[in-house]
Design a protein that fits this description.
- This protein has one domain.
- 80% of the residues lie in helices and 2% in strands.
- It contains 15 helices and two strands.
- Strands 1-2 form a two-stranded antiparallel ribbon.
- A hairpin with a 2-residue loop joins strand 1 (195-199) and strand 2 (202-207).
Amino acid sequence: MPKKDLLAVLRAGDSLSLPEQILLTLQLSVPAILAQLSSIAMQYIDASMVGRLGKEASASIGLVASSTWLFNGLCHALMVGFSVMVAQRIGAGDQRDARNLTKQALLSALGFGLLLAAIGGGISAPLPHLLRADAALCPDASSYFLIFALSLPFVQLNRLSAGLLQASGNMRTPSILLVLMCGLDVLFNALLIFPTRQWGPITLPGAGLGVAGAALGTALSETVVGIIMCIFLLRSPVLGLRQNEKLRFVPAQLRRAVKLGIPVAIERFVMSSAQVVTTGIIAPLGTVSIAANSFAVTAEALCYMPGYGVQSAAITLIGQSIGARRKDLVTRLGWVAVLLGMGIMLAASALMYILAPWIIGLLSPDAQVVALGTAVLRIVVFSEPLFGASIVSAGVFQGAGSSLLSSVLNFTSMWGVRVTLTLLMVPRWGLQGAWIAMCIELCFRGMLFLLFLWRKRWLPREMRM
């Protein structure tokens, strides 16, 4: 019996039972979750390899980590702006217009990626000093951020192509390619971070570039997979190139993409800048605290990155439902996705509490770093289910075109709660104080998002009744 295409059923206006709604959400979520898990594996491998160079090398990367999140967030914003529109056009049955949007998106991504690379390269030298880092950490931190910045055009291409493929309902191809990126990152890091060394009778070649090698390995893997991802997008059955379809620039569509993307960019800027401020508060605590904070942040991703996989599914589900005018399904699918994300993150957080010492130990051989990293990681796991509620709810809001709402809620929570509490708690309790502040803020944020999800203010006006 042929497999039922539940997305096609949704677009056609046919009914979907609750089990079918859950199944559809899982079909879209599982490949995206696997892709996020491969991303986590890449982060773990990077951190573990650099950790073997010493806590100073780890601290130099941890110092600029929040700044790299800021630039990655801006790349994400452009992806969301176009992906939501493409999902809604596909839901409305207008695939020709979706393909034209894809072409406009790719050209916009190229220009925006080059702009980000220029800005990032320009601030790479003074950035560690602005973050009040120890002078010994600054050279490695600057070189790491410079290499990251120069790779941003390909990072943007990778994110956009993956997002558009997911918006069309193709979650499998981006997931496979992101797993490939993980493998390439391991290979490139092994060749670039360490010097040539002997492993039994085998000579392992290496460039011995240290921290710069870690940045270059990640940049090369992003570049290779970004190009491949773009090729798959251009050959997509739904969004690929057609000989008889010429590129049309539609100013109204570009303005709408910007309108959808700007709140997401502001949201990422608000969140990442708050994390930059938090890093600046933590930096004077010393190298052990910076390294432990960096490794704990990397380890925590095991809990929350699956939530971003469900968020990707939510954007596609809600976007196509809005486009298909499925008023009967939009709210229910939103709650199905949110509850699924919370459940997955609850299970992951329980696992993280048990395995925290082992996971931090994988990332660093330093006993002080492991002890402190384990302590702070066990603080934040209690907030992960509500953190999942905020992550997936944001995807629901964005899929409906209400990206501004999630930006406002994140701004209120990050700056009103986290930064304020961090300033108050770090002088008294050190790094643990910063993570207690994070735990309280994530719980507050999750409850705030659930409240607005329940009130349905994210729906288009004509669907609220």
